[in-house]
């Protein structure tokens, strides 16, 4: 918190503002076969899925940490 910009630490009221922004820009930022890999909070996967699907992304993979908690979602454009 002493070195990161406030935007990196403040995800808005529900903690999802950065994900909204990244997902909204996905088509513009990605190559045709590109994907998004998002590091997440352990309890954010369902909320991020609900943002990704209407934006045209499917969940390609999910990864857990050593405790078995969800930590990474890999999104790919829906075909």
Q: How is this structure best described in words?
A:
Helices cover 30% and strands 27% of the residues. By secondary structure, it is an alpha+beta fold. A three-stranded antiparallel beta sheet has the order 1-3-2, covered by helices on one side. The radius of gyration is 13 Å and the shape is globular. The relative contact order is 0.20. The mean pLDDT is 87.
What are the SSEs and their pairings?
Layout: H1 6-9, H2 17-24, H3 26-29, E1 35-39, H4 45-52, E2 57-64, E3 70-77
Antiparallel strand pairs: 1-3, 2-3
Kindly state the percentage of residues in helix.
25-40%
Q: Helix/strand/pairing class, anyone?
A: alpha+beta
H and E order: HHHEHEE
Total beta strands: 3
State Rg. Answer: 13 Å
Average pLDDT figure: 87
Strand content: 25-35%
The DSSP helix count reads: 4
Strands side by side in the biggest sheet: 1-3-2
Q: Which blocks of ≥5 consecutive residues have pLDDT under 50? A: none
Shape verdict: globular
Main beta-sheet strand count, sense and barrel state = 3 strands, antiparallel
Q: Compute the separation of the termini in Å.
A: 40 Å
